[in-house]
Each structure stands twice: as C-alpha cells, then as structure tokens.
C-alpha cells in the first residue's frame, strides 16, 4: 500500500512500495490502483540548473504526483493559507498535489530527475501564473 | 512529433521532443498522443548493479516504451528471428516494444534510471520466462 501523510490541504506526501532484490530497485505506479486517477500523461525534467526555479504556477483542477527519481530537489507548495517546503530525496517518495496549489521546484542537484504523473492532458490555458489568484 | 525508427519487427526506437530553456530540459509523454496507447501504469528501476541483467522475459500482448532518463544501459531485444542490442544513453530516446519480444537490460551505469510507460495493468501471468516460446 502507498503511505500517505498530509502536508497541507491539497498536498500529501506519498511513499510508494519499493521492490528490491539483488538486481536493484523498482517502483511501479498504476492508474486507479497506486494513485486515485487514470494516468493521462507523464513528464520528466532534468539538467536543471542549481539556481533554477521551476513551476511558479498553479493549476485549478489537475491531480499529479511529483517524484524525484534521481538526486534531490525542494518543492514549495502553497494553498493560499498554508505554505510548506518539502525535500524530495528518495526515489519512491513523492508529493501528491490535488488542489489549487501554487508550486515552486528548486535546489536541484546536478543529477536530479523529477518525474510527474498527471491525470489530464496538457492544456496551456490551465496554468495560473498569478500567485494572487491562489486561495 | 515523435521520431520513430524500426529496430526489429515489434520494436522501434522513439525520440520524444525535448523542451529546453534556461532552466533545464523537459520531456512529456501523453497517452494517445505521444504514444498510441493509454498509459495504464509506469515503473522505474534504479540502483541496478553494473553486472545485473534485468528483464529476461517476454510479454505476449503489452505495449511499452522503455527510456533511460538518467545514465545509460543496453537493451537487447529479440523477436525469435532477429536480435539487436540498443544503447539507451539520452533521456528522450526510448524503445517502443509492441510485439512478442524477449528483452534483457544490462550494462547499467551506476546512476541509471530506466522508466517504463506501459499500456496494461500488472499481470504476473503475462510474463514468459522461457525464451524457447518466443517466435
């Protein structure tokens, strides 16, 4: 089972089971089983500068899990009332963002690979770049 | 558009568009858009020993894309008539396996992270561990 811990309203920390043996480690995420949505798309970011800040936007209606499957980074999440920063530094630990949440990703290690598992198609009109609208 | 090159019958090399800017790089894969199936699950393998061989099985009826999103590894694919080994060494280049294909993954670098994007739920009965059945 996936472990879940609330960070702020709209954001949970999730830890997926890690299947290890003498060959190495494996983490699997299946739609409607390990996450409560069908996986419509994934994306991954890499070769991110250590001073770069990614994100800096919110979505009104997207569910996604963000994982740092290699290296580490920090993710700031803010629902307009509460704001927290979480370090992602183990491959099976992610943030499940399922509300109207402002997010910023920063402090990437050189080798960091962030993987996002998302419930909806890409829609550029769904991005909200004005923090003042988050509440 | 995704570039496609046939490796053997049932296996294509695919190169996904990479979106880079001054923050870093991003690759997105959306079901029924960048791949010709709905994404039912993903999995990723890491911390794999350099002498380990993963895979060593076939599936009768699964479509999946294997990518090495960090580091590199070699993937051997065999459809019973033709056999080829492909090095995956760039984050946006993958193998699309969509036939009855024996596969072995090997020569992992210490930092390698292999990501699989799959069209079906996990089913242990779908694994074929007898190479003699592949044809």
**Biggest interface pair, counts:** A-B, 38 and 38 residues
Question: How many strands appear in the DSSP assignment of chain A?
Answer: 13
Number of self-contained structural domains of chain A:
1
Which strand-content bin applies to the residues of chain A?
over 45%
Widest sheet of chain A: strand order? 1-2-10-7-12-5
Approximate helicity band of chain A = under 10%
For the CA atoms, what is the radius of gyration of chain A? 14 Å
Number of helices of chain A: 0
This entry's quaternary arrangement is: homodimer
The N- and C-terminal alpha carbons of chain A lie at a distance of: 32 Å
The chain-level mean pLDDT of chain A equals 95
Question: Main β-sheet of chain A: number of strands, strand sense, barrel status?
Answer: 6 strands, antiparallel
List the SSEs and their pairings.
Two copies of one chain form a homodimer.
Chain A (H helix, E strand, L loop, with lengths): L2 E6 L2 E5 L3 E3 L2 E7 L10 E6 L7 E6 L4 E7 L2 E6 L4 E6 L4 E5 L4 E5 L6 E6 L8 E2 L7
Antiparallel strand pairs in A: 1-2, 2-10, 3-4, 5-12, 6-11, 6-13, 7-10, 7-12, 8-9, 8-11
What do these coordinates show?
Two copies of one chain form a homodimer. Chain A has 135 residues and is mainly beta. Chain A has one domain (3-133): Sandwich (Jelly Rolls). In chain A, 0% of the residues lie in helices and 52% in strands. The first copy, chain A, contains no helices and 13 strands. Chain A has strands spanning 3-8, 11-15, 19-21, 24-30, 41-46, 54-59, 64-70, 73-78, 83-88, 93-97, 102-106, 113-118, 127-128. In chain A, strands 1-2-10-7-12-5 form a six-stranded antiparallel beta sheet, with no helix packed on it. A five-stranded antiparallel beta sheet of chain A has the order 9-8-11-6-13, with no helix packed on it. The mean pLDDT of chain A is 95. The interface between A and B is large, with 38 and 38 residues. β4 (24-30) of chain A pairs antiparallel with β5 (41-46) of chain B, so a sheet runs across the interface.
């Amino acid at each position: 089972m996936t472990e879940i811990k609330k960070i702020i309203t709209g954001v949970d920390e999730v830890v997926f089971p890690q299947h290890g043996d003498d060959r190495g480690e494996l983490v699997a995420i299946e739609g409607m089983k390990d996450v409560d949505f069908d996986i419509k798309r994934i994306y991954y970011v890499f070769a991110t500068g250590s001073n770069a800040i990614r994100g800096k936007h919110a979505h009104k209606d997207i569910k996604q899990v963000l994982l740092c499957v290699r290296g580490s980074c920090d993710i700031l999440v803010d629902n307009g009332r509460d704001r927290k920063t979480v370090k992602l530094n183990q491959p099976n630990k992610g943030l499940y963002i399922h509300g109207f949440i402002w997010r910023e990703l920063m402090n990437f290690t050189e080798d960091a690979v962030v993987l996002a598992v998302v419930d909806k198609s890409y829609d550029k009109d769904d991005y909200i770049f004005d923090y003042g609208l988050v509440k």
